[in-house]
Design brief:
The complex is a heterodimer of chains A (about 220) and B (about 110).
Chain A lengths: L1 E7 L2 H16 L3 E6 L6 H12 L5 E7 L4 H7 L5 E5 L8 H7 L10 E5 L16 E7 L6 H4 L1 H6 L2 E5 L11 H11 L4 E4 L8 H13 L2
Helix pairs in contact in A: 1-4
Chain B lengths: L2 H19 L3 E10 L6 H12 L8 E7 L2 E4 L5 E3 L15 E5 L3 E9 L1
Parallel strand pairs in B: 1-2
Antiparallel strand pairs in B: 1-6, 3-4, 3-5
Chain lengths: ~220, ~110
Amino acid sequence: MKVKVAANILGANDRIAGENSKIFKDNGVYVINMMSSPGAGKTTLLEKTLAALKDKYKIGVIEGDVATTADAERIEKLGVPVVQINTDGGCHLDGSMIRAVLDEFDLASLDMLIVENVGNLVCPAEFKVGEDHKVMLLSVAEGDDKPLKYPLMFHESSALIINKSDLIPYTNFDLEKARRDSLSINPKLDIFPVSCRTGEGLDGWYGWLEASLKSR
Amino acid sequence: MHEVSLCESILDILKETAAKEGATKVTSVRLRIGEMAGVVDDSLRFAFEIVTKGTLAEGAKLDIEDVPLTARCRSCGREFHIVGYAFSCKHCDSPEIEVVSGREMTIEDIDLEV
């Protein structure tokens, strides 16, 4: 017996992410889903961003990692509410994992929630968690060929932070090529070359984040 | 890499559909997978075999139809195949395009044994 199904395989996750999104909207929380390869500097960017903005806005953080609570411990030192999710081998966060920890936050008091996804340049781009925007990092040591090799995340993101710009003189990373290829995949992408180590370029990123928070 | 999670979702839908139809076995599954869905067909087949082991879908045949990545230009209205992930109109160069196909991951139909 043949049965017509016509079901979206990610339908269950999309539904939960949609419900999360409604919970966030009802509580006035703006949500960022931050993605990159392992080691691109997500947690360091988060530390810098929190230090710059935490006195102005109430920000919460969800840390996603395969294992350890190392990242949550780093964020906790800044006095920001943080919850660690360990995926125990899972390569991405999904809507139900986020839902399961929402009770840990006083959502009504938050302006913004930043979800740091599992380090992985492929899978997180497919799974919505209920975010307003996806933001991704690419670090120069990964190479300027990554946009064309892993196009989906570049296509889905609203902002691209090119981190470790202070290392450019020591690598053959071509910033213009990275910019051109990223914009070819996503002409509306806002791109910020930054160095979390020297602080160069970070003001542009903070400005983008504040502007999108206000226009939510 | 996330092919296992996808197969778990597929299995949930298969179980649900089989229960609704009063079926005990799934013998084949037809999927439509977009060019930009980030899915590797071979990994999906491998994951499907592992995930369905010991379930009503064990041994089911998996047919995967690949869907090309296409877009429609909002400026000139033409449709085209996106090559090399260049997301601007290949006729008029406008960045105002909408993806028509190539992102889907759907179960189209399944064969059941009652």
